[in-house]
Amino acid sequence: DEHDAFAELGHVVVSGESALDTGEETFFVREGYSPLLVRKLRRGQWVIEEELDLHGARRDEAREMLGDFLKHAIRGRRHCVRIIHGKGLGSMNREPVLKHKVKVWLSRREEVIAYCQAPPTMGGGGALLVLLKR
Questions:
Q1: What is the DSSP code string of 1-38?
Q2: Are residues 29 and 114 in contact, defined by beta-carbon separation less than 8 angstroms?
């Protein structure tokens, strides 16, 4: 089933912690969890219980805001959250600095099970849907 799900998504199955950025879409699944979580996350299986908007934040501010937000979400027993990092259109050289940094920071946090790019109606390439441990 997992291989079929990834074939349907158009991605290659990677063992261990999987973080793929194809240019079109990004997703991450922590080792020990089913890649099917990403498919369910994309399809709206979980209700977004809280969100963080990092627009206009500098790198250090954004990292601190993200850490505080995740701690708050875990304490509040949130399971699914949205992180809005923006598309980087207002950044120097129009490079999406936070977009890439947020992905790295999330993949290093033990409380993060999986994340994927939000669907277009929820921010598309400017946001991530994140699944947290209960």
A1: -HHHHHHHHT----SSSEEEE-SS-EEEE-TTS-THHH
A2: yes
d(CA 44, CA 37) in angstroms, rounded, equals 11
Q: Which helix (H) or strand (E) holds 42?
A: helix 36-42
Which residues fall within 8 angstroms of residue 38, CB to CB, at 6 or more apart? Answer: 5, 9, 27, 29, 114, 116
Q: What tokens does 110 get? A: 């033990």
Q: Residue 41: in which H helix or E strand, if any? A: helix 36-42
Tokens of 97: 């600095």
59-88, pLDDT tens digit by residue?
A: 999 999 999 999 999 999 999 999 999 876
- β-bridge pairing 127-132 and 80-84: antiparallel
Rounded distance between C-alpha atoms, residue 35 and residue 14, angstroms = 10
Q: What is the pTM of this model?
A: 0.79
